[in-house]
Amino acid sequence: MNILIIDDEQGIRTTLASVLEDERYHAFSAEDAIIGLDILSRQQIDLIFLDVLLPNMGGLEALERIRKDFPQIEIIVISGHANIDMAVRAVKLGAFDFLEKPLSLDKVLTVTRNAIAIQNLRKENIDLKKRIAPKMDILGVSKQIEHIRALIKQAAQSDARILISGENGTGKEVAARAVHDFSSRADKCFVEVNCAAIPDTLIESELFGHEKGAFTDAVSSRKGRFEMADGGTLFLDEIGEMSQALQAKFLRVLEGHPFERVGGNAPIVVDARVIAATNRDLEKEVAGGHFRHDLFFRLRVLEIIIPPLRKRLEDIPILADYFLDKFSKETGRKYQGFSPEAMRVLMNYRWPGNIRELKNVVERAVVLSAGPWVQESDLLLTTLHTTGETDIRRESTSDIFVPLSLDDVERNHIMRTLNHLQWNKSLASKLLGIERTTLDRKIKRYGLEKGE
């Protein structure tokens, strides 16, 4: 165990070193903080005794430097009678404890043992976390998915902002959670905000919080999602839906400026990593003037693009088996797998709803199937979105073929679901795997009407 003593008094350095070495610790000495920092850069140090009043660099400044560069090292502050206030400030800045001069050797040894015990507990905790490291929930064997898994682990090593792009249902939130789980922030909060699910009038309050009386329904003060994510990760889903007015305020926060709650004037600064996701082409949105270019580049320090399920067909059997096992356990029913015909249908389907749709299809099949094999008839998939010639729509009165756009696919799928459920929007949103507000927005976007 290596202990560094930083004190400008030769007598204290010699006495402390002698006492510690009698206890079989290895002591290093430095007469000022600059020399101490140099030793830290070259030696593995486990504990530091740091005087408050030092030449060249003050003890508090040295404490902040060490806390920033060597956060794993415990620091015991040494202080004279006239410097107790400074010692208390040092503890507030992260020192483990402080000892008053003249030093009591018994206290020195007691505090040393306590600090080392904390060090050992921290090391045990780190080792335990390594043994129970989070598992990657992004399943698949395709090269695209292998690349994404590697990219997530690499991205998790920094606090750089990330933009995750991909169609609806591809697993953007799963990727964001994986980055958080593999990062140093894993023991803090992962806070999610769906920018499309919150009305424009409430999104600012949702993000930044509000004070009591800020608006009609503000009966009490409330923290925003940014404050909730302090020390952790803030995940902004469907960032492309954020209004331009809010984009400007959000940009200022990303640039390091403090923010205020709605109706408040107290500046708030938080440390939250921001991960954003979108199903839109934000570069086109920027070119069209719908999204701020400076915010786009602030968000896209790193980018993870999740491919649609139809472009990684080899992953479909793995995902289907995973969901079958999951829902089988939940329902207490046993299945041996998918019949060859059922798997053929799954492989030939276009999956406009991607993994979310596959999950819903398998869950429905578990409910409907008599087992022990899931059959083609249990899947309830139409041929509208199967691969090959059925990817296109045949006009009933001619031999003309018209390619289906993704908007057409989504519009038709939503319309059929609504008609089948007699326009029960709550049930339809659950079956489609989207929020009720998102369904309402898509109904308006596609001009869908009951009875169509």
Structure description:
By secondary structure, the protein is an alpha/beta fold. It has 3 domains: about 1-130, Rossmann fold (3-Layer(aba) Sandwich); about 145-305, P-loop containing nucleotide triphosphate hydrolases (Rossmann fold); about 310-385, Orthogonal Bundle (Helicase, Ruva Protein, domain 3). Helix content is about 45%, strand content about 15%. It is built from 18 helices and 14 strands. It has helices spanning about 10-20, 35-40, 60-70, 85-90, 105-130, 145-155, 170-180, 200-210, 225-230, 245-255, 280-285, 295-300, 315-330, 340-350, 355-370, 405-420, 425-430, 435-445; strands spanning about 1-5, 25-30, 45-50, 75-80, 95-100, 160-165, 190-195, 235, 275-280, 300-305, 335-340, 375, 390-395, 400-405. The strands form 4 sheets. A 5-stranded parallel β-sheet has the order 2-1-3-4-5, with helices on both faces. A 5-stranded parallel β-sheet has the order 7-8-9-6-10. It has a two-stranded parallel ribbon with strand order 11-12. The longest helix is centred in the first third of the chain and has 27 residues, at about 105-130. Mean pLDDT is about 85; it is low at about 390-405.
How would you describe the shape? Answer: elongated
| Contiguous runs where pLDDT drops below 50 for at least 5 residues | 388-403
Cα distance spanning the termini: 77 Å
Mean pLDDT: 84
The portion of residues forming beta strands comes to 5-15%
The value of Rg in angstroms is 30 Å
Count of all domains: 3
Task: List the strand order in the largest sheet.
Answer: 2-1-3-4-5
Q: Tally the helices: what do you get?
A: 18
CATH domain topology of the largest domain? Rossmann fold
Helix content, binned percent: 40-55%
Strand tally is 14
**CATH hierarchy, class of the largest domain:** Alpha Beta
